Amino acid sequence: MQFITLGKSDIEISRIIMGTWQAGKTMWTGIDDNETIKAVKSAFDAGVTTFDTATVYGNGHSEQIVGKALRGVRDQVVIATKVFAHSLAYDKVLDACHKSLKDLGTDYIDLYQIHWPAGSFGSKKVPVEETMSALNNLKEHGKIRAIGVSNFSRKQVEDASRHGQIDSLQPPYSLFWRHAEKDAIPYCVQNDITILAYSPLAQGILTGKFGPDHQFEKGDHRAKNRLFQPEHYSRVQKALKQLRSIAERKGITLAQLALAWVISHPGFCAIAGARNPDQSVQNAQASAIELSKEDMAEMDAIGRTVSDHLDDNPVLWEW
Asked: I need a surface site. Which of 37, 50, 157, 160 has the fewest CB within 10 A?
């Protein structure tokens, strides 16, 4: 496993991070708690030391599962979680953090992130300095070790950085979804803010397991993923065919190829979810894959046959 330092902190994180949105069950189908726990433990055994969750994932259920799975190795792992947009007022941040600590079964959170900017999803537009004041308080008291943001634009990252040290940005980012390259990523690279790319597999598209006529089960939020919509999906399928030939040439899976592409960018980590132990292990193995400049250029060109046809909306879903 490859490791890097999180922003300007002294925290070391794995380049492959296990994401646990699915562990919350809400907005997903076919999730089994016991399999999720096995998947988390298998990820750790395979070298993954960093695990990402959020309060809103099943209203704490994901955090509870993560905490349960990692209880015996807490001092060997980095736990990242998030406070949702509806809880960004000063007192609400403190309350949300204490709830997360309880659900995770830990005394501290390594990386505490603002999940979405204030005002998202009809939430109150709390000034970022108020939210940052609460986060700085939690950091000073040892409840959290580092502060990050998620789904922020460059301007929003800059504004937050004026009120405290921001060590990470978590944007949606993959071969097929690259909006942040034009906006927040250059600023983060220049200012030692680590990129934690979520949906690096485009919610499963880059595994190649979804055929041209795939239909999601009722309740699966991925049906609203913009890349699955008809106006883009045919281009997605053509690009996957080209990427598959590269993966076969290297003797790896499509998913591993896509993850390797993300973490081949300096200062980037990839947050990949897993439903079972096998997926966890395969994701972790992507850390050992080396891509040449030629590989990266070829994949970049293929990815752009999809991403260049998207509009400027940075949100991955049609909610």
From this structure: 37
